[in-house]
Specification:
homopentamer; globular
Chain lengths: 79, 79, 79, 79, 79
């Protein structure tokens, strides 16, 4: 997983029907900007955990999603 | 998912038979150029949402596609 | 697989329910920092073997995980 | 998918038995060189369409292939 | 697939049980170092063909492996 920060969201009227009802956030990982389906109600400025690839679609009832926000981080600690 | 801009398309007479009937667009993501199957009728200059990897093939009846255009963006807003 | 070093861990109170009970470590591979589910009880400073992608989820009862620590390295030898 | 140019091929006498009978081409995408199974009879200098990842194996009867040449491009046009 | 050179191997006493009996080689692709399960008996200095991603696990009885050495190259020729 990658750590990123929510920087915004995107809207699309014309889209594949299986994407209806999904919220798409723009996430900056420092290296790049990705668009991810939101599973946890994240908002702008939140530091989040991002899952990418095929497994991301398991959060979304197998919709064709390749990135999902799956957690909002409390903090980073040293073990 | 990634955000990209449609810059053109590609034609191939000699191709794997399971790719017949697909439209292939060239998409620039800023970092690189990718070729993606079009699922939403995008045209040159459109800003689109791009799904990559195995999940892209779900839009295309399981054809061996690793990238698909799944939405045309209205705009990018701040949440 | 990639070789990395455990540099810390992350906590998330608000997360997808299927991630309950997982421990998430921050791993530096030199090139980048990743967050991975821990399967072997690794601690800070351990040099570990990191599996990424869909196969990582097999270690975690098919939870939607895209990176897992699967071994703690003894040493690197020449064959 | 990516666009690349065929620059050569590779031979391997010692290989996993499930790879018998496959032709492997070396493809330059500009950024990197990849080795891909050939499904369309491409030759040196041909500009080709390259599928990578799990879906590439669908062209090859589920053999463990992670890249395949699936089309020879006619030309790139503007839509 | 990628072409790489075997530069060494790694040992791990503490590892996920499903990885028992696998040999792990360190492979340099020029750009990066990867650790891959060996399916063909490769040794240090051999030039090898490397499969990455989910398909690599098919060589290893579905063990959670994301990279495998599947062939030892004879030579690179021009088609």
């Amino acid at each position: 997983m990658k750590i990123g920060t929510v920087t915004g969201s995107v809207w699309a009227t014309r889209k594949a029907s299986c994407l209806m009802g999904q919220t798409f956030l723009v996430i900056s990982t420092g290296d790049e900007d990705l668009v991810a389906a939101d599973q946890v109600g994240a908002g702008k400025g939140d530091k989040v955990l991002l899952v990418t690839g095929t497994v991301a679609s398991r959060f979304c009832m197998e919709a064709p999603i390749d990135a999902a926000v799956v957690a909002i981080l409390d903090s980073e600690k040293q073990p």
